[in-house]
Amino acid sequence: MATSTDRSQEIQKLHELIKGIDYGMFTTVDDDGSLHSYPMSKSSEINSEATLWFFTYAASHKVTEVEHHKQVNVSFSSSEQQRYVSISGTSELVKDRNKMRELWKPELKTWFPKGLDEPDISLLKVNINQVNYWDSASSFKSTKISF
Amino acid sequence: MATSTDRSQEIQKLHELIKGIDYGMFTTVDDDGSLHSYPMSKSSEINSEATLWFFTYAASHKVTEVEHHKQVNVSFSSSEQQRYVSISGTSELVKDRNKMRELWKPELKTWFPKGLDEPDISLLKVNINQVNYWDSASSFKSTKISF
Q1: How far is CA A100 from CA A25, A97, A123, A126, B69, in A?
Q2: Where would I find the H helices in A19-145?
């Protein structure tokens, strides 16, 4: 089992890997077994917890998918930086107004024109279990981080 | 059902969407239900068929995942072009030497140093069922193409 020092190093490494890559592709499994990806803007950098947060509408299809199959993947790709990150975890819908106020950023108005007054606005939290990444520094060999 | 003209227009649209984005994130489902993504260099542009091809080692874990759960997603992201493409389909392992010779490109030597003489070198074919894309031209509204 990872010690707390290991864990803080792992979280710091993940923070560096995805810093500056705003959009992740959030992949879910549908009831028929098919996989769908959705571009989602991450709502904060990775800090002390191994979690990702995304704003969503609670009635969107991806939320139904997550409620039926909670395991998801979020990938971050940067061709300029030659870096590819796969984040495996479980996701859940969170309707916490305080958390929404903490995470809100004006750029999100593109999708949520009324901001936090948007009916149905919610959060998808991703609890991270495993990260794999590939970059030019590792000659594109896969490196694994377990949480 | 799509007519052949519709189909050729859909394939042309997909060709344009992912042209110039070399790496896709290939997402699979593991036996425990967890989702993993792998960066993979696409081995040809989309031409007359709604298929994607990737070189792989037949013994790699993603091949086992595909054999147990054939539904996959391949996403292509370009932050410069503000374009995000989700491709849902089914995948299968193909060990066709002629197809490998047709698709081989020297850049693949990074992963397959011996080229087509690499033991175990194979192809993963993806038969495309559905494409969704988001770009600045559509104000990041999702557009769906069914095949």
Answers
A1: 21, 5, 7, 15, 36
A2: 61-68, 97-103
CA distance linking residue B71 with residue A65, whole number of Å: 15
Instruction: Tell me the pairing of strands B143-146 and B121-135.
Output: antiparallel
Distance CA A140, CA B14 (A): 27
Alpha-carbon separation of residue A61 from A2, A22, A124, A139 (angstroms):
35, 22, 13, 38
- Say whether residue A91 is in contact with chain B using an 8 A CB cutoff: no
At position A8, the amino acid (one-letter code) is S
List pLDDT tens digits, range B17-30. 999 899 999 999 99
Residues A47-100 have pLDDT tens digits of 788 999 999 999 999 999 999 999 999 999 998 889 999 999 999 999 999 999
Is B145 domain-assigned? no
Q: Does A60 touch chain B (CB under 8 A)?
A: no
Confidence check: pLDDT of A24 > 80: yes
Inter-chain residue contact B35 with A77, CB threshold 8 Å: no
Examine residue B106 and state whether it is found in any structural domain, yes or no: yes
- In whole angstroms, give the CA distance from residue B146 to residue A78: 28
Is A111 in CB contact (< 8 Å) with chain B?
Answer: yes
Q: What is the CATH number of the domain that holds B35?
A: 2.30.110.10
